[in-house]
Every structure is written in C-alpha cells, then in structure tokens.
C-alpha cells in the first residue's frame, strides 16, 4: 500500500494529510509546528528532519508528496511581496528535500485543489464574504465533510472576545492540507473530470 503525503506548509506551520493511494481514503490528518526561532534555511532543514525521522518512520509507505503550488503573484493584498518571496523559497526547499529523500514530488494550485476537492464550493468575495477569508470559507466545507473531531478549539483569554470558543490557529492549515490531498487524489488518481 503506497501513501501520499499532502502538505499545506508555510514558514510557521505545516498542515498535513496522508492518503492511501489505492483506496483513496485519508489515513491521517494533523499538523506540525515549525520551530519559530530558526532562520528560513534552518526551518527547511527542520522539515527534512521531521519528514525523515517522524513521517517516514511512522508511515514508511509514503512514496509521494504533493505541496500547494508556489504563488506566482500576490492575491488581493493578502501577502506582501516579501512574504510571498519567502513562502516561494520555503516551498522550493521543502520539495527539494522530499525529492532528496527519494519521494516523488508534485504540486497542485490552490484553485485546482479546491475545484477537485469541492466542485460545488462557492468562494464569496467583497461584501458577500462578510469578512471571511477564502481559507476560512473553505474550512466550512471541510468541517461539513469531516466533522469537528480533527479540529480542536481554544477559549480566548483576553480582549473583546474573551471567553469565546474558537478553533486553534493551525486548523486552517490542517484543513488546507485536506483540500490539497483530496484535490490531488481526485484529479490524478480517481481521474475525475472537472470543467
């Protein structure tokens, strides 16, 4: 049984989902927090250690990694050019080290992964979005499909929202890794046709 590791990875958090490539079922869904006190280069090397000494030990059947494709442009002011450049560098480093470990590596765009994972999803913009970012809107679809068990909550301890129960910050990364994996499996393994 071969497995696919799908990643939504940044410089601070890695959401990941693991998929059985024969049954197309998700095997695991969680996250890895990247040490914050490291340089970008050391964060990428920390990823190699995590992948080699944790993921591939726990799941030796992983032979393929898919990562959300690097940005080629900024989207509506959501990321500065500096952040976009840093994310692109990190993305390349993560893929290079996965390749170095003998894993097939590939990418899928944000649009494609969403389209193949949730073909009926509608992303609202502007006033219609009511302040919800695209990642948050997609999280609603993932929650509806998987339920809340994969997504822990916390209680806000300060400020105007004190006492409010919210999802942990990493839940959006976990959700996105599910979308990356489901979209990739649907497009390249199930070969589902989408318009």
Describe the fold and architecture.
This protein has 195 residues and is of the alpha/beta class. It has a single domain (3-189), classed as Nucleotidyltransferase, domain 5 (2-Layer Sandwich), CATH 3.30.420. The chain is 41% helix and 21% strand. The strands form two sheets. It has a five-stranded mixed sheet, with helices on both faces. A hairpin with a 5-residue loop joins β2 and β3 (26-33). α1 packs across α2 (81-100), α3 packs across α5 (171-189) and α4 (134-146) crosses α5 (171-189). The longest helix is centred in the middle third of the chain and has 20 residues, at 81-100. The protein starts with a strand and ends in a 6-residue tail after the last helix. Residues 73-77 have low confidence and may be disordered.
Summarize the structure.
This protein is an alpha/beta fold. It contains 5 helices and 7 strands, in the order βββαβαβααββα.
**Quick check: average pLDDT?**
93
| CATH class wording | Alpha Beta
The total domain count is 1
Instruction: Say what the CATH topology is.
Output: Nucleotidyltransferase, domain 5
Secondary-structure class: alpha/beta
Give the tally of β-strands.
7
Taking all Cα atoms into account, the compactness measure Rg is: 17 Å
Question: Keywords, please?
Answer:
Nucleotidyltransferase, domain 5; 21% strand; two-stranded antiparallel sheet; 7 strands; 195 residues; single chain; five-stranded mixed sheet
Topology:
Blueprint: E1 3-9, E2 13-20, E3 26-33, H1 40-58, E4 62-68, H2 81-100, E5 104-108, H3 110-117, H4 134-146, E6 153-155, E7 165-167, H5 171-189
Helix pairs in contact: 1-2, 3-5, 4-5
């Amino acid at each position: 049984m071969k497995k696919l590791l799908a990643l939504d990875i940044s410089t601070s958090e890695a959401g990941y989902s693991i998929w059985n490539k024969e049954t197309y079922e998700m095997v695991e869904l969680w996250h890895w927090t990247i040490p914050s006190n490291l340089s970008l280069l050391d964060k990428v090397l920390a990823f190699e250690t995590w992948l080699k000494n944790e993921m591939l030990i726990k799941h030796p059947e992983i032979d393929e990694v898919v990562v959300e494709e690097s940005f080629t442009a900024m989207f509506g002011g959501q990321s500065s050019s500096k952040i976009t450049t840093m994310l692109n560098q990190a993305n390349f480093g993560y893929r290079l080290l996965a390749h170095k470990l003998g894993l097939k590596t590939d990418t899928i765009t944000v649009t494609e992964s969403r389209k193949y994972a949730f073909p009926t999803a509608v992303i609202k913009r502007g006033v219609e979005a009511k302040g919800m970012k695209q990642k948050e809107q997609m999280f609603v679809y993932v929650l509806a499909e998987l339920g809340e068990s994969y997504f822990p909550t916390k209680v806000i301890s300060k400020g105007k929202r004190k006492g409010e129960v919210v999802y942990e910050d990493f839940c959006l990364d976990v959700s996105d890794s599910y979308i990356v994996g489901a979209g990739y499996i649907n497009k390249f393994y199930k070969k589902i046709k989408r318009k």
